[in-house]
């Protein structure tokens, strides 16, 4: 294998619980309870897309600009002051980097928020690039997201691992030809059996990826 793409939220940093709660809490202020299916769908979307999706799906009266302003303030505070790196994240990034593989992050999180946490924990020292839905121009739910990264890295999709906690992202990456590696996250434990069943590789701890 020539390269490995790591998801950020729920994979390298422990933030999926926050994303679920902040979305639910935000919508509860509008008298709406978000269904689990909607939550899972939004894991492959960037902030713009998820807000537009919720606005359309729940027919919210506020403008997109108002929703984005209110929501992004809370998100930035979280990434600056509350998010924590997952156990073994830096060690596993260094491990693959030392093996001569191209190590990058592929995330739905906006560049601004992703860079806050990447720099905060020194993740930037062990990666060769950051690819977001914004920078790539495709959502993680689209095969083109992964194909574009593969093209930029100059590697065949079949020579690239994707490490992710989202079964939807893993499914999409597999359709694009990548090798999916499921990683456990407590906040998506309901889909863990599906991840294990559908992917050749899976691990409960990041450090276990050394067995790949």
Automatic annotation (TrEMBL):
GO terms for molecular function: phosphoglycolate phosphatase activity. One of its GO terms (biological process) is DNA repair. CDD domains: HAD_BPGM-like (cd07505). Keywords: Hydrolase. This is HAD hydrolase, family IA, variant 3. GO terms for cellular component: cytosol. It comes from Peptoniphilus harei ACS-146-V-Sch2b. The lineage of its organism: Bacteria, Bacillati, Bacillota, Tissierellia, Tissierellales. Transmembrane segments: none annotated.
């Amino acid at each position: 294998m020539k390269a490995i793409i790591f998801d950020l939220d729920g994979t390298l940093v422990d933030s999926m619980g926050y994303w679920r709660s902040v979305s639910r809490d935000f919508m509860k202020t509008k008298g709406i309870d978000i269904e689990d299916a909607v939550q899972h769908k939004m894991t492959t979307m960037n902030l713009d897309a998820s807000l537009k999706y919720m606005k359309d799906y729940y027919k919210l009266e506020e403008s997109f600009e108002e929703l984005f302003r209110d929501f992004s303030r809370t998100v930035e505070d979280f990434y600056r002051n509350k998010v924590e790196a997952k156990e073994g994240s830096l060690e596993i990034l260094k491990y693959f980097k030392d093996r001569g593989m191209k190590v990058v992050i592929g995330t739905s999180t906006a560049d601004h928020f992703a860079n806050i946490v990447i720099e905060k924990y020194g993740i930037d020292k062990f990666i060769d690039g950051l690819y977001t839905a914004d920078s790539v121009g495709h959502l993680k739910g689209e095969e083109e997201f992964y194909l574009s990264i593969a093209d930029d890295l100059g590697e065949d999709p079949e020579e690239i691992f994707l490490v992710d906690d989202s079964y939807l992202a893993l499914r999409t990456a597999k359709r694009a030809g990548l090798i999916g590696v499921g990683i456990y996250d407590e906040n998506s434990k309901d889909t863990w059996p599906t991840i294990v069943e559908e992917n050749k590789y899976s691990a409960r701890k990041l450090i276990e990826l050394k067995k790949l």
